[in-house]
Amino acid sequence: MKGLKKRIRAFTLVELIVTIAVAAILIIIAAPSFTAFYENARSDAAIRNIQQSLQLARNQAISYGVVVTVCPLNGNTCGTDWRNGFSVFIDNGTLATIDSTNGVDDKVIKVIDAFNSNDFVSYDENSISFSPDGLTTGALTSGRISYCPGSKSNENTKTIEIIRSGKIRFAGTATSCS
């Protein structure tokens, strides 16, 4: 029994430090690409949410024969800060205002919560309204809603274009949120 020595298998301190150093270097190199990936995914999800809400508004207008408005509400009227979220509502009375006309109240269909506080959403108008025939109402001939993650000019900016006929599509060229 003299020849049997119990041998302990483990990492040495030097091996452990080298492994941690290599892992740290790999994380430092990979972190910026994860940020860009996260911004792209966040931008894509947000712009699809906006697009689906606009399509819902247009479909509701056509299906129920009413005017439906999409806008960032500030109290009962449409505001201008799309970053804080927006609402889709049946607009029976004064356009871009939740009110009651001839005893018929406007009805909120959907509410979209605020977007990421570091991101920007831009649109030239304070509201988008769809008439019962699916066309946009008012002076809007075409418009673009842009979602910019992190800064007003980001390579991961996504844009939706709305044209007078009510067609909603993803724009091929990215713009900024200025």
From TrEMBL:
Pfam families: GspH (PF12019), N_methyl (PF07963)
Segments passing through the bilayer: 12-38
Entry's localization field: Cell inner membrane
Keywords of the record: Cell inner membrane, Cell membrane, Membrane, Methylation, Transmembrane, Transmembrane helix
Domain (General secretion pathway GspH) ranges: 46-166
Predominant subcellular localization, coarse grouping: membrane
Matches recorded under Gene3D superfamilies: minor pseudopilin epsh domain
Family per similarity comment: Belongs to the GSP H family.
Protein name according to UniProt: Type II secretion system protein H
